[in-house]
DNA sequence: ACCTGAACACCGTTCAAGT
DNA sequence: ACCTGAACACCGTTCAAGT
């Protein structure tokens, strides 16, 4: 279920990054194409969520028979992979000249990534289990490039990249999963209150009602970047607290 | 799909934390019970993953008809919620006396949480989308209690708790999703190499082959705790780097 | 090269009964 | 109070055919 897609597996050979072509069918709209299939899958996912994506429904929207899809596509997992990656394109940091600051670039890309997944709430929970498409790989490459510019050593690069990935994915998956219904959250908090002797702290802080996901995201990200980026001259404070020793 | 379960919804009223009872059926093994259903669901999930859990298969393993389950349980989502929470019990930090250090307590609980989810690889990706059971709420309460002991202000409590939740969930979901097959990861890295001109940095660091998930987890967690815990007297370094200003 | 319908082996859940 | 089988409205995918 993880990083699949070793090469072109479908009957038709496929360019590496077949995402959304600008405007696939020039005339009416009848002919099926990979581009149309993927774009319609995204629409369907946006409308009805992950459980709403069905080969039959997808074919219906496209005005074709179900089995026609299978000439363009291997199976449903294939559709998911393509829909996912098509939604994660990144146009790069706003300023491309010199004097780019690594931290700004990283923060911009990660916030943009998060925003894209929030626009397509099904995407976040899908991403960790699916193949890594070119757009996601591009974002990871950009991350590595920025961190390298920041002076992160090769040996620590993967840890740094995965820490940031973990944080972004965790934040976004939680956000999109929790946010589906505010009533449910209210009900949860109410239930919490009923057992307030059991959960006094989180009941008092009204944990389940907290709304500032964006703020929490940026703040935690800042802490992570503080720790990951060696560019920041931070004095050794190893004697100041009970934390475990930290290397360099 | 989020924090459901406002109260007892099934036909039979249910104690609040009906998890795994020690040994539900004293004699043979025939009588159905909520405890047996949940325990068997966990077995099934461990054996065949999330897609392997089916009401029919579950009934088969229990030696009953499918519809018999529905007297004890509302629906399949109910089964998932109960299985999930039953797997996330926490026995508390090793040392319960005085002189407990908040950071050790937090780290212990989070590592234990992660370990529990790694033992049941289906659980991590299920958790964000499901109702929060008593065991998960207990862990969050303990987190809040420890952070409060550390001096985290009430106003910043939720941000701190959610940051840690996000990090743990992101790390564990990624780990369990990626780890399903090493061949796939190898194939992914190979594919990366084929396009090395496109992804030079992460190809060089061999990102998709990196194995030290545990190390990455602890390291990132340390950074987060460095930032979250105000107990640590950290000098103001706001002029030392390009980072955005940080409050307090 | 591209599309199709019939068929297979599954799903979760409702309903009306049984004991 | 507890369990059941038949039936409904769905799934993804194989296969053998059509153009």
Brief summary of the model shown:
With 248 residues, chain A is mainly α. Helix content of chain A is 55%, strand content 0%.
Describe this structure as you would to a colleague.
The structure is a homodimer of 248-residue chains. By secondary structure, chain A is mostly helical. The first copy, chain A, has 2 domains: 30-87, Arc Repressor Mutant, subunit A; 102-226, Tetracycline Repressor, domain 2 (Orthogonal Bundle). In chain A, 55% of the residues lie in helices and 0% in strands. Chain A contains 11 helices and no strands. Chain A has helices at 34-48, 55-62, 69-72, 76-86, 102-119, 122-126, 134-150, 154-178, 182-194, 200-204, 213-228. In chain A, helix 5 (102-119) runs parallel beside helix 8 (154-178). Chain A is flat, with a radius of gyration of 22 Å. Chain A starts with 33 loop residues before the first helix and ends in a 20-residue tail after the last helix. The relative contact order of chain A is 0.09. At the A-B interface, helix 5, helix 7, helix 8, helix 9 and helix 10 of A face helix 7, helix 8, helix 9, helix 10 and helix 11 of B. The first copy, chain A, binds a DNA duplex (19 and 19 nucleotides) through residues 11-12, 31-32, 54-56, 64-68, 70-72, 75-76.
């Amino acid at each position: 279920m993880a990083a699949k897609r070793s090469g072109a597996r479908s009957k038709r050979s496929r360019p590496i990054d077949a995402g959304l072509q600008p405007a696939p069918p020039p005339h009416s709209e009848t002919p099926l194409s990979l581009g149309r299939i993927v774009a319609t899958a995204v629409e369907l996912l946006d409308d009805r969520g992950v459980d709403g994506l069905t080969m039959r429904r997808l074919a219906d929207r496209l005005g074709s028979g179900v089995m026609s899809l299978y000439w363009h596509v291997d199976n449903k997992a294939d559709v998911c992979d393509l829909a996912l990656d098509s939604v994660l394109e990144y146009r790069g940091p706003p300023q491309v000249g010199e004097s780019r600051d690594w931290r700004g670039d990283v923060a911009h890309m990660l916030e943009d990534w998060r925003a894209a997944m929030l626009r397509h709430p099904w995407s976040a929970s899908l991403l960790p289990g699916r193949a890594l498409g070119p757009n996601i790989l591009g974002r990871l490459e950009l991350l590595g490039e920025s961190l390298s510019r920041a002076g992160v050593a090769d040996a620590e690069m993967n840890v740094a990249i995965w820490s940031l990935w973990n944080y972004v994915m965790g934040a976004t998956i939680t956000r999109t999963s929790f946010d589906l219904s505010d009533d449910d959250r209210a009900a949860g908090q109410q239930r919490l209150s009923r057992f307030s002797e059991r959960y006094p702290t989180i009941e008092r802080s009204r944990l389940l009602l907290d709304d500032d996901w964006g703020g929490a995201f940026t703040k935690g990200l800042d802490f992570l970047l503080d720790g990951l980026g060696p560019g920041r001259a931070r004095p050794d404070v190893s004697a100041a607290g009970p934390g475990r020793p930290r290397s360099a």
